Amino acid sequence: MVAGDVRRWGGGKPSAAASGLSGEAPAFPWEAVLHAGLCRMRLPARDFWAMTPRELGFALGLLRPSAGTPGRAGLAALMRAFPDKKE
């Protein structure tokens, strides 16, 4: 088995429910999440279980902050580029 292989946590092939073939919602990918947190990121178990899903997503690079609103200079540039039409 390759180091970091998620199958070591319980199984080879996913069940029908996990693959969505049974009509049920797919199971949460615990094996992949545990592997990412404990093996790839090398978090202590205490820290891993204290994280929220959102924190873990950001730490893994799955979630990226959205672009912020433009500042005063950016707004001024937009106003020059797209002036209001006076009728």
Low-confidence stretches: 1-13
Beginning-to-end CA distance, first to last residue: 72 Å
Helix amount: 40-55%
Shape: elongated
Tally of DSSP β-strands: 0
Note the beta-strand portion: under 5%
Quaternary structure type? single chain
Calculate the mean pLDDT score and round it. Answer: 77
What is the H-and-E element order?
Answer: HHHHH
| Cα-atom radius of gyration | 22 Å
Outline the biggest β-sheet: none
Number of helices: 5
User: What would you call the structural class?
Assistant: mainly alpha
Which descriptors would you attach to this protein?
single chain, 87 residues, mainly alpha, 5 helices, 45% helix, 0% strand, disordered N terminus
Describe this structure in words.
By secondary structure, the protein is an all-alpha fold. It contains five helices and no strands. The protein is elongated and about 60 Å long. The termini are far apart. Residues 1-13 have low confidence and may be disordered.
Topology overview:
Blueprint: H1 16-19, H2 30-40, H3 45-50, H4 53-60, H5 72-81
